[in-house]
Amino acid sequence: MTPAQFVQETSSTGEWKRQGNRFTGRISRESSSAPGEGPDEQGRWPVEAGRYRLVVSLACPWAHRSIIVRRLLGLEDAISLAVVDPIRDERGWRFTLDPDDRDPVLGIKFLSEAYLHTDPSYDGRVTVPAIVDTVTGQVVTNDYPQITLDFSTEWTDFHRADAPQLIPADSDTRSEMDQLIEEIFRDVNNGVYRCGFATSQQAYGTAYDDLFARLDVLEDRLKDRTYLLGDTVREVDVRLFTTLVRFDAVYHGHFKCNRQKLTEFPNLWAYARRLYQLPGFGETVDFDQIKRHYYVTHDNINPTRIVPKGPDPRVWTA
Ligand SMILES: N[C@@H](CCC(=O)N[C@@H](CS)C(=O)NCC(=O)O)C(=O)O
C-alpha cells in the first residue's frame, strides 16, 4: 500500500478517517462566569467582546467557514482574527506572516504552543480553525462545526443590525438544513479529502462515487432555487461554498476529483458564483494561499511541490 499522508487517520483498507476535535469548549450566553474568568462549572466560557482570538488559515475550508460567518454577522470587532502561514513546516501552523514571526496578540510563534499549553499531552494534528482565549492562552475550541453555529446563536448581542439569519428559526427548515449539512459533510466537504487521502483504489473509488452522486443531487436541487434552502443564504450554503470554491483549483487535480469540474455543473457553478459575489464570500477567498497550501503541504501526494498555475481565477467574476 502507498504511504498515507496522515498514517494515524488511515484505515487498514485505505480509507481516510478524520480525527475527532480535541477541544470542545463553548462560549455561551448561558455561562455564569464573570468577564475575565474561565469556563463555569458546566464548561461554558463567557461571551466577551475583544477577549477571544480566532486562528485561521485562509487556505483551509473548515476555517474559511468561520471567516465568512464572522464577516456576515459583523463580528469582526468582537472576535479578532489571526492568520497563519498557508505552508506548515514540521512544527505545524506558524505565524510567519506576522512581524517577528509571532502572533501580536497571543505572543506565540506556532499554534501548537497554545494546544500544548492547554493539554501538554496532546499528540494529534494541530488544526485550524481554533479559538484561543487571550486571558489564559488556552484553546477554547477547535470544534469547527460548532464554532460557526455559536457565532450565530451565542454572539447575537454583537451582530450587526442587518445580520442574516444563517440558522432557520422554523424547525422543519432547520431539520432539512441539518440533514443537508450532514450529507454535504460526508460526501462533499469531507468527501474530497476521502478521495485525496485514500491509499487504496477501492477506497478512492467509493469516495469518488459518493462525491459525484451527491453533487448530482445538489445540481438538481439548485435548478429552481437561489440557495440550498430557498431565497435566503443559510449556514449550509457557507459550508458548501468553501468546498466548491476550492474544487477546480485544488480538488479536481490534487485530490483526483475529476469526473467534472465545478464549471461543468451549470447550476452549481451559477450558485457558487452567486455566493462568491456576495459581501463576505469572494472577498475572503485567497486562491494563491489555497493552492500553495495544498500542493506544498501534502508532499506525499505531490512530492515535487510544484504549484499549478491555473485555473484562471477571473472566471469567478466574469
Ligand atoms: N479539526 C478538524 C478539521 C480542521 C482541519 O482539518 N484543518 C486542517 C487544515 S484544512 C488542519 O489544520 N490541518 C493540520 C494538519 O493536518 O496538521 C480535524 O482535525 O480534522
Could you characterize what this model shows?
By secondary structure, this protein is an alpha/beta fold. It has 2 domains: 7-158, Glutaredoxin (3-Layer(aba) Sandwich), CATH 3.40.30; 171-316, Glutathione S-transferase Yfyf (Class Pi), Chain A, domain 2. Helices cover 37% and strands 7% of the residues. The protein has helices spanning 61-73, 111-118, 144-154, 171-189, 191-196, 201-221, 235-251, 266-276, 287-297; strands at 26-28, 44-46, 52-56, 80-83, 130-133, 139-141. The strands form 2 sheets. The chain has a 4-stranded mixed β-sheet with strand order 4-3-5-6. A two-stranded parallel sheet has the order 1-2. A hairpin with a 5-residue loop joins β5 and β6. α4 (171-189) runs antiparallel to α6 (201-221). The longest helix is centred in the middle third of the chain and has 21 residues, at 201-221. It is globular. The chain starts with 25 loop residues before the first strand and ends in a 21-residue tail after the last helix. The structure holds glutathione. Residues 18-19, 21, 60, 62, 92, 125-128, 142, 144 line the site of glutathione (GSH). The active site is at 60 (nucleophile), 193 (proton donor/acceptor). The record marks 251, 294 as: Lowers pKa of active site Cys. Residues 170-294 form the GST C-terminal domain. InterPro entries: Glutathione-S-Trfase_C-like, Glutathione-S-Trfase_C_sf, Glutathione_S-Trfase, Glutathione_S-Trfase_N, GST_Omega-like_C, GST_Omega/GSH, Thioredoxin-like_sf. This is Putative glutathione S-transferase.
